[in-house]
């Protein structure tokens, strides 16, 4: 008997010490599971190496869950939070470094998957919230979707980023009417009578 297939969206919330992650059902929007990946352990190599390793582990975990649940979990889209303004230069550089490393590691661990990047106001809006929604509003929205009220903030953000990615996934977008090329103008016929003007005398 063939195992059923469940398509997933993944949300990633990079920071300088951890990466929040969450998987949601692409069809129904239900939260499947979520957690954090630690990337700030000096004794385990450079941070980009730690990020790459953690994303590989996340891929292996997804495969292991497929085998355990008897379901083929198929990742279709990944949403990643982009760096935002309003932070000091040092933190901005560290976040940009981590976000770039997460993006590259995601492409390596999950090849041929659509990757979307969102600024915080954008993913909040795509979840039906105000662009400057408070943390309390984010927790409330995640709870409405099925998360526990005491879910850590990084995981709350990851859940909502996954929901935003689900709504923005190209396969979920409404169909648009294909553009049609304008009809070419008819060329003048070769049988058109020639006009001969009389010369002035």
Could you characterize the architecture of this molecule?
The structure is a single chain. With 201 residues, this protein is an alpha/beta fold. The protein has one domain (5-168): Nucleotidyltransferase, domain 5, CATH 3.30.420. The protein has helices at residues 47-69, 89-109, 120-126, 135-144, 153-168, and strands at 5-14, 18-25, 31-38, 72-81, 114-118. It has a five-stranded mixed beta sheet with strand order 3-2-1-4-5. The model is unreliable at 173-180 (pLDDT under 50).
Output the CATH class name. Answer: Alpha Beta
Main pleated-sheet profile: 5 strands, mixed
Structural class: alpha/beta
> What's the structural domain tally?
1
SSE topology:
Blueprint: E1 5-14, E2 18-25, E3 31-38, H1 47-69, E4 72-81, H2 89-109, E5 114-118, H3 120-126, H4 135-144, H5 153-168
Parallel strand pairs: 1-4, 4-5
Antiparallel strand pairs: 1-2, 2-3
Helix pairs in contact: 1-2, 3-5, 4-5
């Amino acid at each position: 008997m063939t195992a059923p297939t469940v398509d997933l969206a993944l949300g990633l919330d990079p920071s300088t010490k951890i990466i929040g992650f969450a998987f949601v059902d692409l069809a129904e929007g239900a939260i499947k599971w979520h957690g954090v990946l630690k990337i700030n352990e000096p004794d385990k190599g450079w941070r980009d190496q730690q990020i790459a390793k953690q994303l590989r582990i996340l891929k292996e975990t997804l495969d292991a869950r497929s085998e355990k649940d008897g379901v083929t979990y198929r990742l279709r889209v990944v949403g990643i939070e982009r760096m935002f303004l309003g932070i000091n230069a040092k933190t901005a550089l560290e976040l940009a470094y981590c976000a770039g490393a997460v993006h590259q590691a995601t492409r390596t661990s999950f090849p041929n998957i659509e990757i979307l990047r969102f600024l915080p106001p954008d993913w909040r809006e795509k979840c039906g919230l105000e662009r400057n929604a408070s943390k309390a509003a984010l927790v409330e929205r995640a709870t409405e979707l099925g998360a526990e009220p005491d879910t850590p903030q990084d995981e709350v953000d990851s859940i909502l980023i996954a929901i935003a990615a689900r709504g923005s996934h190209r396969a979920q977008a409404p169909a648009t009417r294909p553009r049609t090329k304008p009809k070419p103008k008819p060329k003048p016929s070769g049988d058109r009578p020639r006009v001969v003007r009389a010369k002035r005398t």
